[in-house]
């Protein structure tokens, strides 16, 4: 049996005192791809930020166990350095920080955390050059400021480039497909698929089924009002696509569906 | 309403005529008249002296000085300090800078900018120092040296103290100054090597007073890169004036570094007159001094001139750093770009007032002005006052000011990639500063300034 990478138990969380997550349960094992779908405001992105340790989100109950370790008390950077990677729905643009320097600093932060020696500029350039292939990016992207003036697709590819570089155990893709045209979606998904291994796990958060044609999930969960209300195989995504989220409203009163099926 | 350009900088004469200002009088008494100076210079100094005798120290009641309190300066007793033993001075200053508690250590300080090793003039306590200066790397067609040694065929009298926008501190410098650094580039001469002017104040146990003065003439079609630097140790008052004449079709790229001692006062004027088709760019970095006031003033006097004013202020502790700039356009097709950035932490205080005057004749002007402030502490203070005065009717002018803190979302993004909170903050501060630092001409300088700022803002 594969190792459990992430185990979320009865997780509740607030933003500004308002409960957003209201008891989330989720288990992800090595080698698995899980998708979380749901309407806007259902708590999908909140779950991803809580796992990554965003300081604005207050965990009020339950626990997040990552590789046997309770994450709740870890700083966001400690979580990142121990192998959790969140690809942002809206990657931030930071003028004045070169993409290359940013990636080198991030890479070396992880090496330092692992007790390894930091690598120098030249070795890093060789390393990143290889990774560029994964998302078909030109090295000229590295010279630019982090995400500044990047198109939507370029920003998302840049996220996957960071994923390729940081080699995470658990990757959370928060609406990586939003605003992408089909070519960019293909490049991004190809990149993600190249990075899949039996030791790693993937949590894909999306609003649309289309992404799941490219990154095939083993499990699909649907979130509604801060909980996972139904789970199933990849066919659940197709059902949602054809019937819309409205059919959930009929089920929402039915507590027995909570946490079903995984 | 007609735009009257220089009026704002002419200081008020005290009502009732002659009321000698104690502060200025005391300082002037310190200044020795250089008997060897040419008559025209003695005349100008005398004129300034008599003008100054009718002026008083500006106070918060003066619009241009209302944000800062000069009383700690004007109640101080300062004495001029003469030449000191130059041996090991750069190194002493370096190690002193290195030992500052707030951290000012910068790699190049032990050997100032290797790129300017052979194109450097050093003034100590306002006096030219031959031993530390070296200009063997400069080509024919440029004079770099003390005014006292300027060959007779250069007519310095035509330029010295001939800029508009006089004020009391400039008059004090003109009246009581001693030596003058001169950089004079002949017609059509292009100088690639940066010319580095270093003004060091080292007043020992005294509370010193120095008045560096620089005259730059870039003749028609010439091109130079100028670096002006102020450093020092101890408690002192620097009153610096630099005049730059940028003649037709010439280019001057100017860097001004103010890294004075953190117990010092620095008041500086950079007055620039531009003829037609000329380009002038200044990148100023203000890191030092307990109280710093700099007045960059650019007078566009010909068509199609271009001016770029970029500034970076980093104020920490109790520092006060005030920049009052003027860009005056009086002919058509002028361009000006101004970007002034301040990083303010602890209980420090940064002030920006940028005036852009566009007279009726200055049609088709393209002017932008932006002041951006990054506040790192709730006790820090910023006063900003961008100001456009336009009478021409066919121009493109934009200005603005922002005050912000480090963005929590940006910090989280960086931390989610493994950076510690401190490293994330530092990266964002560096990024804010980089927009100005990246415009500095030498890589070693960019690196050392970046390092200096990192250590300065680190708590």
Helix-strand layout with pairing:
The complex is a heterodimer of chains A (262) and B (459).
Chain A: E1 4-15, E2 18-29, E3 33-38, H1 44-52, E4 57-66, E5 69-70, H2 76-81, E6 84-87, E7 94-98, H3 99-113, H4 121-132, H5 140-143, E8 145-146, H6 152-166, E9 170-174, H7 182-194, E10 201-206, H8 211-214, E11 219-224, E12 227-232, H9 235-243, H10 246-251
Helix pairs in contact in A: 6-7
Chain B: H1 22-30, H2 39-52, H3 71-74, E1 79-80, H4 89-99, E2 120-124, E3 127-134, E4 142-146, H5 168-176, E5 181-185, E6 195-202, E7 208-210, E8 213-218, E9 223-233, E10 236-246, E11 251-259, E12 265-274, E13 279-286, E14 291-300, E15 306-315, E16 320-329, E17 335-344, E18 349-358, E19 366-375, E20 381-390, E21 396-404, H6 408-415, H7 421-437, H8 443-457
Parallel strand pairs in B: 1-7, 2-6, 5-8, 6-9, 7-10, 8-10, 9-11, 10-12, 11-13, 12-14, 13-15, 14-16, 15-17, 16-18, 17-19, 18-20, 19-21
Antiparallel strand pairs in B: 2-3, 4-5
Helix pairs in contact in B: 2-5, 6-7, 7-8
Structural class of chain A, by secondary structure, is: alpha/beta
Q: What oligomeric state do these chains adopt? A: heterodimer
Beta strands of chain A, count: 12
Structural class, from helix and strand content of chain B? Answer: alpha/beta
Largest contact between chains: A-B, 29 and 24 residues
What percent of the residues of chain B sit in helical stretches (DSSP H or I)?
10-25%
Shape of chain A: globular
Detailed description of the structure:
The complex is a heterodimer of chains A (262) and B (459). By secondary structure, chain A is of the alpha/beta class. Chain A has a single domain (4-257), classed as Rossmann fold (3-Layer(aba) Sandwich). Helix content of chain A is 35%, strand content 29%. Chain A has ten helices and twelve strands. Chain A has helices at residues 44-52, 76-81, 99-113, 121-132, 140-143, 152-166, 182-194, 211-214, 235-243, 246-251, and strands at 4-15, 18-29, 33-38, 57-66, 69-70, 84-87, 94-98, 145-146, 170-174, 201-206, 219-224, 227-232. In chain A, the strands form three sheets. In chain A, strands 6-9-10-3-11-12 form a six-stranded mixed β-sheet, with helices on both faces. Chain A has a four-stranded antiparallel β-sheet with strand order 2-1-4-5. In chain A, a hairpin with a 2-residue loop joins strand 11 and strand 12 (227-232). Chain A is globular. Chain A starts with a strand and ends in an 11-residue tail after the last helix. Chain B has one domain. Chain B has helices spanning 22-30, 39-52, 71-74, 89-99, 168-176, 408-415, 421-437, 443-457, and strands at residues 79-80, 120-124, 127-134, 142-146, 181-185, 195-202, 208-210, 213-218, 223-233, 236-246, 251-259, 265-274, 279-286, 291-300, 306-315, 320-329, 335-344, 349-358, 366-375, 381-390, 396-404. The longest helix of chain B is centred in the last third of the chain and has 17 residues, at 421-437. Helix content of chain B is 19%, strand content 37%. The model of chain B is unreliable at 6-11, 14-18 and 94-111 (pLDDT under 50). Chain B has 459 residues and is of the alpha/beta class. Chain B is globular. Chains A and B meet through helix 2, strand 7 and helix 3 of A and helix 6 and helix 7 of B.
């Amino acid at each position: 049996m594969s190792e459990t990478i992430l185990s979320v138990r009865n997780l509740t969380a607030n933003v500004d005192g308002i409960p957003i997550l209201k008891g989330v349960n989720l288990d992800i094992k090595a080698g698995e791809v899980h998708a979380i779908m749901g309407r806007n405001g259902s708590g999908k992105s909140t779950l991803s930020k809580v796992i990554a340790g965003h300081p604005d989100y207050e965990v009020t109950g339950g626990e997040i166990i990552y590789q046997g370790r309770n994450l709740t008390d870890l700083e966001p950077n400690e979580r990142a350095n121990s192998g959790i990677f969140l690809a942002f729905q809206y990657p931030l643009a930071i003028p004045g920080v070169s993409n290359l320097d940013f990636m080198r600093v991030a890479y070396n932060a992880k090496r330092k955390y692992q007790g390894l020696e930091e690598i120098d500029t030249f070795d890093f350039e060789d390393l990143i050059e290889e990774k560029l292939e994964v998302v078909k990016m030109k090295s000229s992207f590295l010279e630019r400021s982090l995400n500044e003036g990047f198109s939507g697709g370029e920003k998302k590819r840049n996220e996957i480039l960071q994923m390729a570089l940081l080699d995470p155990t658990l990757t959370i893709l928060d609406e990586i497909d939003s605003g992408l045209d089909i070519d960019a979606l293909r490049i991004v998904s190809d990149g993600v698929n190249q990075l899949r291994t039996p030791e790693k796990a993937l949590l894909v958060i999306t609003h649309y089924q289309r992404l799941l044609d490219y990154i095939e999930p083993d499990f699909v969960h649907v979130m509604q009002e801060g909980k996972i209300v139904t789970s199933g195989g990849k066919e659940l995504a197709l059902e949602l696509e054809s019937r819309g989220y409205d059919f959930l409203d009929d089920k929402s009163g039915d507590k027995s569906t909570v946490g079903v099926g995984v | 309403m007609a735009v009257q350009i220089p009026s704002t900088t002419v200081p008020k004469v005290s009502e009732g005529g002659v009321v000698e200002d104690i502060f200025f009088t005391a300082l002037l008494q310190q200044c020795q008249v250089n008997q060897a100076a040419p008559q025209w210079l003695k005349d100008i100094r005398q004129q300034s002296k008599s003008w100054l005798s009718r002026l008083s120290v500006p106070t918060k009641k003066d619009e241009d000085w209302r944000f800062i309190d000069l009383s700690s300066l004007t109640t101080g007793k300062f004495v001029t300090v003469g030449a000191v033993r130059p041996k090991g001075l750069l190194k002493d200053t370096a190690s002193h800078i290195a030992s500052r508690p707030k951290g000012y250590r910068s790699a190049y300080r032990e050997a100032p900018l290797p790129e300017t090793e052979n194109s450097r003039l050093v003034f100590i306590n306002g006096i030219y120092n031959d031993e530390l200066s070296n200009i063997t790397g400069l080509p024919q067609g440029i004079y770099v040296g003390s005014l006292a040694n300027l060959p007779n065929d250069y007519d310095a009298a035509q330029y010295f103290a001939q800029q508009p926008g006089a004020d009391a501190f400039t008059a004090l410098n003109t009246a009581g100054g001693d030596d003058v650094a001169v950089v004079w580039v002949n017609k059509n001469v292009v100088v690639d090597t940066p010319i580095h002017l270093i003004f060091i104040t080292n007043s020992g146990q005294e509370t010193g007073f120095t008045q560096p003065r620089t005259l730059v003439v870039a003749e028609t079609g010439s091109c130079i890169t100028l670096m002006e630097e102020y450093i020092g140790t101890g408690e002192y008052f620097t009153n610096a004036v630099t005049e730059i004449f940028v003649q037709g079709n010439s280019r001057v790229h100017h860097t001004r570094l103010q890294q004075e001692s953190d117990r010092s006062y620095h008041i500086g004027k950079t007055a620039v007159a531009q003829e037609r088709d000329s380009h002038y760019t200044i990148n100023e970095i203000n890191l030092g001094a307990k109280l710093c006031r700099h007045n960059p003033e650019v007078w566009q006097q010909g068509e199609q001139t271009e001016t770029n004013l970029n500034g970076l202020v980093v104020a920490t502790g109790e520092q006060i750093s005030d920049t009052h700039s003027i860009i005056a356009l009086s002919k058509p097709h002028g361009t000006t770009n101004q970007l002034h950035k301040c990083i303010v932490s602890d209980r420090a205080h940064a002030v920006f007032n940028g005036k852009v005057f566009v007279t009726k004749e200055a049609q088709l002007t393209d002017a932008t002005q932006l002041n951006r402030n990054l506040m790192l502490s709730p006790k820090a203070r910023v006063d900003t006052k961008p100001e456009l005065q336009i009478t021409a009717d066919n121009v493109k002018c934009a200005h603005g000011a922002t005050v912000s803190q480090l963005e929590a979302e940006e910090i989280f993004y960086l931390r989610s990639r493994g950076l510690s909170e401190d490293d994330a903050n530092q990266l964002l501060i560096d990024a804010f500063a980089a927009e100005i630092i990246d415009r500095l001409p030498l890589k070693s300088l960019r690196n050392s300034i970046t390092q200096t700022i990192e250590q300065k803002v680190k708590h």
